[in-house]
């Protein structure tokens, strides 16, 4: 059961809050698709930093401070991705499900299971 006094936590609500956030600050003028895509890549690169120099095993069990840092960067990446999608009027969930269907055709289970070869190297 959810508390009706809490803000909704769904993609549509996030999109609306980001739109309002930008509008209140007069940032829409800076939110071109090019600028948002560039900011998204910067934030995605920052997501790598907490994992730098960790082993595979260490990356699976982060200490609380590192986990918090990763969560903040994931938030930044999602914010820019949702804002970019909004500016371009693309439904990110629709785009993701469509891409998943494409990937399912490119990587059939019987050929891709258990290895990481690219689709054009599957036999």
Automatic annotation (TrEMBL):
- Highest taxon of the lineage: Bacteria
Residues annotated as coiled-coil are none
Name the InterPro entries for this protein. dCTP_Pyrophosphatase, DCTPP
Q: What is this protein called?
A: Nucleotide pyrophosphohydrolase
- Originating species: Thiobacter aerophilum
């Amino acid at each position: 059961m959810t508390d009706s006094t809490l803000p909704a936590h769904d993609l549509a609500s996030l999109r609306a809050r980001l739109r309002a956030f930008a509008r209140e600050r007069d940032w829409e003028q800076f939110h071109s698709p090019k600028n948002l895509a560039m900011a998204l890549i910067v934030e995605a690169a920052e997501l790598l930093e907490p994992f730098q120099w960790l082993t595979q095993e260490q990356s699976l069990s982060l200490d609380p401070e590192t986990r918090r840092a990763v969560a903040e960067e994931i938030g930044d990446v999602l914010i820019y991705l949702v804002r970019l999608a909004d500016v371009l009027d693309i439904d990110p969930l629709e785009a993701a499900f469509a891409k998943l269907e494409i990937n399912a055709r490119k990587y059939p289970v019987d050929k891709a299971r258990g290895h990481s070869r690219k689709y054009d190297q599957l036999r």
